[in-house]
Write the structure tokens for this entry.
Amino acid sequence: MFLRKLFNSWSKDKLQSDVDDELAFHLEQRAKENRQNGMTDEEAHSSAYRRLGNLTLARERTAEADLFGWLECWLSDLRLSIRSLRKAPVFTLMTILSLSLGIGATTIVFTVTKQVVLDFLPVPQPERLVILHNEGVEEGHTRNTGIRSAFSYPLYRDMNAATGALFQGIVGRLAEGVTLAHGQESELVRCELVSGNYFDVLGVRSWRGRLLHASDDQRPGAHPVVVLSYGYWQRKFGSEVSVLGQTIRLNNHPFIIIGVAARGFDGLDLATPPAVFVPMMMKHQITPTWDGLADRLDHWCNLVARLAPGVTLEKAQARLNVIYPSLRKQDLPFIKSPGADFLKAFAKNHVALQAGGKGYSDVRETLRNPLRFLSWMVAILLLITIVNVANLLIARAASKRREIAIRMAVGAGKVALLRQLLVESLTLAALGGVSGLALTYFVTPVLLHFLSSDLSDSSIRAIPDWRIVAFASLVSVGAGLAFGLLPSWQAARTNVGDALKTESVSGHTGERYLLRRVLVASQVAFCLVLLSSALLFARSLRNLEHIQLGFDLSNLLTFKINAAGAGYSQSRIRAFAAELNQQLIHLSGVEGSGLVTVPIIEDTDRGTSITVEGYKPASHDDEEARLNEVSPGLFPTLKVPLLSGRWLADGDLAPNSKTALVNAHFAKHFFHGRSPLGAHFGFGSGTGVKMPWTIVGVVGDSVHSSLRTKIESYVYPAYTSSDELSTLTFYLRTRGRQESVKRDIQRIVHRYDSNLPVYDLRSMDETVAQQLFAERGLGLLSILFSALAILLALIGLYGVMAYAVARRRREFGVRMAIGATPRTILAMMLREAVVLGLIGVITAIPLVFAAGRAIQSSLYGVEANSPLLISIAASFLLLCLASAAFVPARRAARIDPQAALRSE
Amino acid sequence: MGRLSPKPLQGSLNLLILRTLSRGPMHGYAIASRIQQVSDDVLQVEEGSLYPALHRMEQERWITSEWQLSDSKRRVRFYELTAKGKQLLKQEEQEWERVTAAIAKVLRHA
């Protein structure tokens, strides 16, 4: 019936033709009768028309009666619903608030999770893409930029040529920062160096112009062409088509813009959407300090392949296992004097294929767990919301029961009643959904900001997925209906007379009261799971924030300059660094200044094999140390203590100086308590490595790549010894306000060379904060979600208690009449609330332990199943419950026994 | 000659339709003819208003309708009273009699 009406309203034609048929029949009958009364055919016909009056008007009015009659029904239901909801503002507000919080939180978290964890790359058949991981030991340089998928370029070419039967093609890429100049402006942007087959193999279309092809990637330095990403084209060039064919400068080299990649395609890494795509053969222009295109011992190229038709990942893996060792044999001649252990390990090198339809994502890896936990949390929150809405609707139904019974007694149809209840619930759902949606719009960017600074400028969008919103709304209201409205309707239907009597102690209300108590207890249980997890995350965050850094974080300022990107030669960079450092020290408000080649606590580090005089390595891994080149002023500026020997001095910056500092961990590992001062070492492993370097001092241990990584052995040569200087990171100890120092830094660098962008200029506190983004986000959000959950549970408990007090007025009256004091009544009610809470707590214990096991691996320095934390959470929850129960309990205690007994 | 009201007994159309249908299912034309015939041609249903009224009454669930095929194989829409319609008819008849009796009294005695 409903559907037919709905259908009719859409197919007005059908409705109109029914009306036409009906009226035509009428006219025909009338004409027939007229003829029987002796009229001519023509007269009979026109008389029939005259009697009907204006035919068009009759048609329209009849059709309208159908359409509007139906709409009228629903509209009047809607009006009635709104009126009755407005008459119960507390109920309405509570329900909408619960719904919007539950729906909003669910939508926000799932929207982000979907994009970060679930969404595939916007290319045809993304599931056919595989990522190639390089597994095993390597000699030479390995440059992992967060992605453990680095191959040497010659190996990539060999592999691509040898796997034609397995893959449609393997694409190589490297993400790099590059200085982009257009007109007078220059800025640092992300660049993806890509092999010529990149767009063709991935199946990316061009939005404007053309993309890169194999012919654009033939000879080093011969293809100065660039493809813009859609986002950058839109942001920077205002979607102007005329930029095609224009020249921009990348690291001061001219490149011609040939096209714009498809909208939505942001490269292979979610977290780092590139502004420009450049042919791999232009690598020397993009990374002027190192080439690596011909070096078999330089591992840096990330590989992704598309499986050939009919080839499965397993089959490709099996074939590749056979092909790969023979390809790697070509590396052996280049490895100097490899040891037997190394050769044995090297022979086991292999490629691991991994489904690559979602692209690379470092962010995905780091956020997968936090997002998974948050998803679980909002799922629980949604459950609590559902329970809460159900609880509210049951209370609502109890109060509407009389109204329903009265309406039925005066002849309202069951269908009409049900429809009205439905309209009311849908109205609530719509209001809750809309306010939840509004919440989503405002809060999603904040969530992204909390979770990761990387995501803020990533390709993730804050637009909620409508399917998620619809799902959350439907689930909450559907469950609410099932719990709340249907029973009330059933009760009213079966027992009109009973319901009409004043609140009698009937079985129905008793059952409902029990159901509501069960619901509250389950809310308490869910709350405890959320709260104890939140406390664990918060505790873990606190531990991370108070980690021993090994240096002084206060008043520390940092910034970066990519001098190589501006086309500087190595010697010019050395001169520039020395001069800039000198000028910085003399700025007012600056106490010290130093620089490094590998930034501290930014998830990057550099490893090297090392041979130390007099040390016998236990295995290949044992000959490794981390490396960071520093200026003499660095450690004094960071306030890292000197444990023995001396600091580096200006004399150590001389071209042929081979002096270095080591950290305490290095000294302990390689010297076992002997003094390392004056000892020699060399870079590289195997027999016959020269050891020209001398250790002149030992400094304290400090954290390097990230807060979570353990302290490792570090060696610190002077930065002047590096011949790969490109990005320099400076650290300054400041006094007073940092703003003026920041301005001075910009001014000095700009005066030196206006083409040198200063970037990542910020306090070191911000860098640490960035490290802890995910943890802080998780901690804050889990606390927030628990607070919401507790709030909802308290609303639920308050409702139940208030209802109980009203229902048991008479009982309290009797109790007081036979001698109970207000105090005993108060205690009795509070006891009931606490017992309800305790039941919830006890039920929750297994769940709490399960949750603890699930999150243990993401915690830092906390035991997940800590009885202390769980008891704190449980006590806090019970305290909250008791306070929420206090108001209705006090009302119970203040009942006037005479009035209560008289009232019935 | 002036009239007190342009349409005397306004609103009585619904009542007439309900009463007519209480004899059994009928199509619109039959309803109109029946009212005219029984009232000895005094009451002529305004045909332009008949069908909108029927459709509105259907929306109110007082009557239901069904398409049937006539002897000449035409689609004809038949209307029938519902239980709700019957109940309403009973109430309205009583009300009508009460009011008309009262009016008659006033006309006679006032």
About this structure: Chain B touches chain A at residues 27-29, 32-33, 46-49, 51-56, 58-61, 70, 74-77, 84, 87 (CB under 8 Å).
